[in-house]
Amino acid sequence: MITDEPETISGLTQLFEADSRDPDAGLPPGFSESLIVGPDLARTRFLEMLGQARRSIRIIDHRVSDPQVVALLRTCQASGVSVQVLGQGAVDGMLSHGKMILVDDAAAAIGSISLSPPSLNLRREVAVMIRDPGNTGKLKRFFEQHGRAATGGLPAEWSVPDRLDADDASDDLD
User: Fold this and answer.
1) Cα–Cα distance between 138 and 75 in angstroms, integer?
2) Does 102 reside within a domain?
3) Which of 36, 94, 119, 167 has its CA 20 to 30 A from that of 66?
């Protein structure tokens, strides 16, 4: 990601400086709303974002396993929201570490935070909120292009596994 947005740059600088001084201090006061930082506020912000979906949720994340997130995605699907997840497998021939959430093609978050218990509960990871229509449009096209390449067509509606392990040990390697 490349940005020249002062609020995002300032927030990332504040976070880096605060974490360098005292990694356990939490978020600096007055922290930027354009950033989602784990573990401090990630779960709350993502649940809020996903809960606002009225038409579609598109996710690139191979670790969607957090029980609260999965329950909300199931609820959204049951209410008629299309939920598509590019998960296992390659994105454009590579294993993707970056994550993306796109809600109603109008609000997005991109970064390193997985929708898994270790990422939401334990790790310092960051995502950036995007609401600019030009950029969310690019993310929609990226999802569609890479979704077609990975699946031979757009990903089907998401199907939640019957069993989820909250302590996904394989996530420790991510």
Assistant:
1) 27
2) yes
3) 94
**Mean pLDDT estimate for the chain:** 82
Q: Which residues of the chain fall short of a pLDDT of 50?
A: 162-174
Cα 147–Cα 125–Cα 60 angle in degrees, nearest 5: 10
Neighbouring residues of 157: CB distance < 8 A, sequence distance ≥ 6: 77, 82, 83, 84
Evaluate whether 158 touches 106 at the Cβ level (below 8 Å): no
Give the C-alpha distances (Å, rounded to integers) separating 72 from 68, 69, 79, 98, 111.
Answer: 6, 5, 11, 22, 21
DSSP helix/strand/coil, 84 = strand
Q: Is residue 120 part of a domain?
A: yes
Give the pTM.
Answer: 0.82
In order of 6, 13, 109, 130, 136, the CA distances from 82 in angstroms are: 34, 36, 18, 20, 17
Contact (Cβ atoms closer than 8 angstroms) between residue 124 and residue 37 = yes
Q: Which CATH number covers residue 63?
A: 3.30.870.10
